[in-house]
Amino acid sequence: MNPRCFLLCLACMAALAGCQPQPASTASVVRIEGPTMGSTYHISYVPGSGGQPAAAQAQGAVQALLGEIDAAVSTYRDDSDLARFNAAPASVCMDMPDTALELARHALALAQQSEGAFDVTLLPVLEAWGFRHGAAARPAHETSPAPAPAELEAARDRMGMQHLRVQPGQLCKDAPIRVEFNSIAAGYAVDRVASYFAQQGVGSYLVEITGEMKAVGLKPDGAPWRIAIEAPLEGERQAQRIVQLNGLALSTSGDYRNWHEVDGQRQSHIIDPRTLAPVRHRLAAVTVAAPSALEADGLSTLFMALGPQQGFDYAQARGIAALFVSRRENGAGFATRATAAFDAAFGASPQGEKP
Questions:
Q1: Is the pLDDT score of 136 beyond 90?
Q2: Of 9, 133, 134, 175, which is the most exposed, with the fewest CB atoms less than 10 Å away?
Q3: Which residues are Mg(2+)-binding (predicted)?
Q4: Structural domain tally of the chain?
Q5: Is residue 16 predicted with pLDDT exceeding 60?
Q6: 297 annotated among ligand-binding-site residues
Q7: pTM for this entry
């Protein structure tokens, strides 16, 4: 799974097992789940007229969509389109599927809007700090030495969004960069799956993929889909805030479960592309709500790089619905701060709210 904290879905995520369509606890709600992207997906939906799509039909379509995305942009398989692009030398343009091109366009736009705080070419830097991918991945929380300055400078020569561009039907690079879309691929997948259900005439559904989610419509009893945003606690799962989703996507990013020690100090897995170093601010988690899961996914990652103040200012100025959870200076718990757009969408945080 991507390095992010989970969103807990009170409406549909409990008591699901296996990878086949499961009997719904409510007769008119269909629930399906399965593996994807090193994690799982869970979907609840109310079938449209004629009971369509049936569970088996929906699951087959969803798995086909997710398989298509995996074949296009996975960095954990050598035969994906993105793996071939990453293995190619500098100064090359390659034909790429629409999935890769759309993700690249979104990443380039977010990098430009954030003045370089969002970057999908950080693999050399992640490797230098010990956050490797695939079979060579270092276990979270393991101790390692800090990379030498020369190693980071060498990594800088093999990264940078300025070296990536999209042209009709092709992805191009003018330096030996490697691209990974782990920070936005799950959100993109949620949007694709949500679009499938909308095209099938389904007016009520909740789609969750590796923790990214989107909900539309109401459940058969007229109640909204209720989502619990998880508190950033290690070793336990506790709901911090419950929100009702209808027509919005939700994404949460955090650094409290994926970290390791470098020279005896705890280091976040989140790298600031501007410094080539793990972030050192007190922001523990940030949740973003947006009409598009792709947008929410990318922004939650960006805000973790920007930090509690710069990230909040960015979101507030642009009318983005975001909830920031920061560690207090004295280490005694957490402080939360919501943008005006978040409070407008979900109401001011009530005291003592329980899942």
A1: no
A2: 134
A3: 183, 297, 301
A4: 1
A5: no
A6: yes
A7: 0.88
